[in-house]
């Protein structure tokens, strides 16, 4: 895993996180590792148990098959001829010798023969069991009669369980009787399987240890962001929202970390907006309150002229404070999700309505230069509010009788509305400052206002995902344009600007 960070997403870690040893989240980490170990142990146990059960059953099945083939081969040979004479077997001894000579015992097997109850001989490379020294086995063998046929029995010996295929033998015309025995040490096979199981258990235990260590290390990397989130939330308060957690990887935890950082971004912006609002209110209301109090302190209640003058001043300052508070409240609402409510509207209708309202703002020569004929998705009320604010500024900073031109158009998927005046113009170095809160240029200080008008215009444009553009020449006037996207849902028809300008007035 690689650290993934971005300057616009990840900020300096909280001071409380620097230089601190990381404390793992024992709860989550331990549960995760224990779950892995439990699952692994269950899987190993099921795998080992299943394989062991299959092999245990295979031991019995293989033993039965081997013994069956052995006594079937003995029966075929007993009906054949003596390889030494080419004649049928005339005695038990040659038959038993031939059987033991020509049949090779399998693993864990031995062949044993008795004549008249006495050991006659045996065959087998490594004898897993010496039946002549096993009384229990000899007793079972001796108890099998000739007329019983082949008998398969399990007996306990000094080497464990032994499965016997007991074949009584008698040659016609001979009084002697014999017994051919095939013995398979199933107990030894089972013991070998048990040793393999013990080895498997040791390997499984070692595997669980390795899994636990690896799981502990890997889980540490997984829960580390959670631990950082926990510590960051513990240190985060209204006084300090600057901590951000590095985003590691691209998994769900990385997404959670990123969402947490984004949440802190929103909280920080909200708190900053609140602080700015309080600072702005405190700063801007201090002056009118001081003016009101100063006039009240020197007011002569017995002087009707002074009372009337003070009353007019108080009403004017009250109106100014009211406008200021309304503008500040409006700016405080900018960050709310429902500040703008876009809807499909005809741009030409919005343009017509805004132009009709603007003409009442002052005695100017009002011209509607163009009106875009397109269906767009905007908030018509907010857009009109910003448009009229630009028109109001054009009236404030131009002379009576001058021309103020308005217009709208749609080009390249953007709505452009503008106001052009023949006023004082704005110096290039001031064309950015005018959008800051309470910034009023020296040339406009004699004009009534709060210094928030263009800030509100810019906020409305940005809420639409757009911008405000200004082109101005000192002494020649200015053109203010609001540019916003047409909106993806406004594709009722192709957006095209109007070819012919509307007539002015």
Short synopsis of the structure:
The protein has helices at 26-78, 92-102, 135-142, 186-235, 252-298, 304-332, 347-358, 380-396, 453-463, and strands at residues 3-4, 109-115, 118-123, 151-157, 160-170, 177-184, 247-248, 343-346, 365-370, 375-378, 403-411, 414-420, 467-473, 477-485. It is of the alpha+beta class and 505 residues long.
Using brief descriptors, characterize the structure shown:
Heat Shock Protein 90; 505 residues; five-stranded antiparallel beta sheet; 9 helices; alpha+beta; disordered N terminus; Helix Hairpins
Overview of the structural elements:
With 505 residues, this protein is α+β, with helices and mostly antiparallel strands. It folds into three domains: 22-226, no CATH class; 252-332, Orthogonal Bundle (Helix Hairpins); 343-490, Heat Shock Protein 90 (2-Layer Sandwich). Helix content is 47%, strand content 18%. The chain has helices at 26-78, 92-102, 135-142, 186-235, 252-298, 304-332, 347-358, 380-396, 453-463; strands at 3-4, 109-115, 118-123, 151-157, 160-170, 177-184, 247-248, 343-346, 365-370, 375-378, 403-411, 414-420, 467-473, 477-485. It has a five-stranded antiparallel sheet with strand order 3-2-6-5-4, with helices on both faces. A five-stranded mixed sheet has the order 9-11-12-14-13, with helices on one face. Helix 4 packs parallel to helix 5 (252-298), helix 5 runs antiparallel to helix 6 and helix 8 packs antiparallel against helix 9 (453-463). The longest helix is centred in the first third of the chain and has 53 residues, at 26-78. The protein is rod-shaped and about 160 Å long. The two termini are 68 Å apart.
């Amino acid at each position: 895993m690689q650290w993934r960070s971005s300057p616009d997403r990840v900020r300096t870690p909280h001071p409380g996180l620097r230089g601190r040893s990381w404390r793992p989240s024992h709860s989550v980490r331990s549960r995760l590792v224990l779950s892995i170990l439990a699952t692994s142990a269950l899987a190993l146990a099921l795998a080992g148990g299943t394989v062991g059960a299959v092999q245990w059953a295979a031991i019995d099945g293989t033993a039965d098959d081997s013994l069956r083939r052995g006594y079937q081969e003995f029966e075929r040979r007993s009906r054949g001829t003596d390889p030494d004479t080419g004649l049928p077997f005339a005695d038990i001894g040659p038959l038993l010798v031939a059987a033991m000579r020509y049949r090779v015992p399998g693993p864990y097997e031995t062949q044993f023969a008795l004549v008249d109850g006495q050991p006659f001989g045996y065959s087998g490379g490594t004898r897993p069991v010496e039946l002549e020294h096993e009384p229990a086995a000899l007793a079972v063998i001796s108890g099998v009669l000739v007329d019983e046929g082949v008998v398969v029995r399990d007996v306990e010996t000094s080497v464990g369980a032994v499965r016997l295929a007991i074949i009584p033998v008698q040659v016609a015309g001979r009084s002697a009787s014999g017994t051919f025995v095939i013995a398979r040490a199933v107990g030894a096979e089972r013991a070998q399987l048990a040793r393999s199981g013990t080895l498997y258990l040791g390997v499984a235990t070692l595997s669980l240890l390795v899994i636990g260590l690896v799981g502990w290390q890997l889980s540490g990397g997984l829960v580390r962001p959670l631990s950082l989130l926990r510590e960051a939330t513990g240190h985060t308060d209204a006084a300090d929202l600057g901590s951000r957690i590095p985003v590691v990887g691209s998994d769900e935890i990385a997404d959670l970390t990123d969402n947490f950082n984004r949440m802190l971004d929103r909280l920080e912006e909200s708190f900053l907006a609140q602080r700015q609002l309080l600072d702005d209110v405190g700063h801007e209301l201090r002056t009118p309150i001081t003016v009101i109090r100063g006039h009240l302190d020197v007011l002569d209640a017995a002087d009707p002229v002074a009372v009337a003058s003070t009353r007019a001043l108080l009403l004017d300052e009250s109106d100014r404070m009211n406008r200021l508070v309304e503008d500040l409240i409006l700016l405080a609402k900018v960050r709310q999700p429902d500040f703008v409510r876009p809807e499909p509207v005809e741009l030409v209708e919005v343009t017509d309505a805004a132009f009709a309202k603007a003409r009442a703002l002052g005695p100017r020569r009002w011209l509607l230069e163009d009106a875009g004929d397109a269906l767009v998705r905007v908030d018509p009320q907010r857009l009109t509010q910003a448009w009229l604010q630009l028109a109001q500024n054009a009236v404030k900073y131009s002379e009576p009788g001058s021309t103020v031109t308005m217009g709208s158009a749609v080009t390249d998927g953007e709505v452009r509305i503008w106001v052009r005046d023949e006023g004082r113009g704005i110096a290039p170095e001031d064309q950015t400052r005018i959008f800051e809160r309470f910034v009023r240029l020296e040339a406009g200080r004699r004009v009534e206002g709060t210094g928030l008008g263009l800030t509100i215009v810019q906020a409305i444009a940005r809420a639409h995902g757009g911008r405000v553009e200004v082109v101005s020449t000192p002494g020649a006037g200015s053109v203010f344009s609001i540019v916003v996207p047409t909106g993806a849902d406004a594709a009722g028809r192709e957006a095209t600007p109007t070819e012919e300008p509307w007539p002015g007035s």
